[in-house]
Amino acid sequence: MPGDLPGDSAGSAIPVLDWALAGDRRRLQEILDRFAASSWERGGLAERLDRFVDDLRARGDGAIVDYLREHTRPDYRAEAIRVAPEALAAAGARLQPRVAAALRRAADNVRAYQAHIMPADPPPLRRHGAELGLRHTPVASAGLSVPGGAGAYPSTVIMLAVPAQVAGVGRLAVATPPLATGSAVEIDATVLGLCHLLGIDTVYRFGGFALAALALGTERVDPVEMIAGPSNVYGQQAKRKLFGAVGIDGLYGPSEIVVLADDTAHPAWVAADLLAQAEHDPGTAILLAVERTVIDRVAAEVGRLLAGRARRAALERALAENCALVQVPDLPAAHAVIDRIAPEHLTLAVADPRAALAEVQHAGAVFLGDRSPVASGDYWAGPSHCLPTGRTARFSSGCSVFTFLKRTSIEAYPHGLPRQAFDDIELLAGIEGFEAHAHSVHLRRPED
Fold it and tell me: How many CB atoms lie within 10 A of CB 163?
């Protein structure tokens, strides 16, 4: 029967739902709706952003300074916008050898994977006297949004910068908010040191609405052709508004995981992956299982693992509000639920994960088997951890070399158009009322 699994307190209860019951389906949908991309429209953000962008166009750096003073650091000054080259070099020199080595290994793994998937230009298609081709070229420059302020995320620097470098982007800039505390307006030292390690020489101390400066440019901010990466709700709204003036990779919301598990899965490992996503606070974690015994075992392990977590209160709140253990009638139903959710992360902790993968269409990243933790994708494996959220995996993809590449079609008729092409183009252009189009082809018609 559906209900809540009792924990050590009311706040640690995890909803246990039965997909066969309409009320439980609605309850799960309510959880998912809170994390949908439409939530970025809340609270009049669009109107506030419009005012900020107008201010940014009018006052440049002054608008950034006032925004950061209001939202992050009252002591923010224009000199803090861009990190000095000597500060970057000093941060690189201060990296602990063990940390630097781990960062290099992670970056090497990402670089190897991205180079492996880098597309080659296809040979031309020869058809009706034409040579029809396609080439891939990188964007000239990209601004990489890296979360900051309350925390530090060097892994995100790797997951954005390395795919862009492999794609061949000529100029990269990292934008990340300064730490909310401390005597100086500064970025986390590991993030700064990693930027130097990766050869990134342009780093800005801002985020949120101020990401708009990457598109528009200011006295201290050089405009770019694309903005990529996660940020808070304000930064995502800025990306949404500026799309068209610049390219964007997508709109990222709170983190999500769906785990499909059967009785072959290690319950403690599954529970640990659920807690890892709930730890994002907010984060959504959904377990799907056909057998109720699987749900009970995983739930018991969640309760056991909670006892040792430093962020227990936040985890208990996330489990109660944003997570669920869902019993489904059979595997086809589970596959349908997965595609309906289109999760950012999907773990297939079942006896035959590759067979399950063949039945699923929509997910940002898939982890096959219970020995493949999502954290491996977050930090080390190779694919980027910047992934579509809020059901956008139905139509979008995670960050990769493809994010930073443009596709250009190529057409050549070295011996001129075939006779049938003249007839068809002139006919179709005439139907559409484009007489000059038809005439441009007619002039090239050979003499009979």
Answer: 31
Q: Where would I find the H helices in 173-232?
A: 189-197, 212-216
Q: Are the CB atoms for 39 and 348 separated by under 8 Å? A: no
Q: Are 262 and 268 within 8 A, CB to CB?
A: no
User: Nearest Cα to 207, choosing from 64, 354, 420?
Assistant: 64
Q: Which helix (H) or strand (E) holds 233?
A: helix 233-242
- Please say whether the dihedral angle defined by the alpha carbons of residues 306, 308, 310 and 313, taken in this order, is positive or negative: positive
First to last CA, the chain: 82
316-326 pLDDT, tens per residue?
888 888 899 99
Count the Cβ atoms, other than its own, within 10 Å of residue 149.
20
CA distance 378 to 366: 12
Query: Burial code of 35-72, b = ≥16 C-beta within 10 A, e = fewer?
Result: bebeebeeeebeeebeebbebbeeebbebbbebbeebb
Cβ burial of 443 (10 Å; 0-12, 13-18, 19+) is exposed
Using CA atoms, how far apart are residues 155 and 148, in angstroms rounded to an integer?
12
DSSP assignment of 37-84: GGGGGGGGHHHHHHHHHHHHHHHTHHHHHHHHHHHT-TT--GGGSB--
Residue type, 208: G
How confident is the model over 364-375, as pLDDT tens digits?
A: 999 999 999 999
pLDDT digits (tens, 9 = 90+) for 14-26: 889 999 999 999 9
> How far is Cα 196 from Cα 199, in angstroms, rounded to an integer?
5
d(CA 107, CA 100): 10
Tokens, residue 433:
């009322």
Beta strand 171-175 pairing with 226-228: unpaired
- The 8-class DSSP code of residue 361 comes to -
Catalytic residue positions, numbered: 344-345
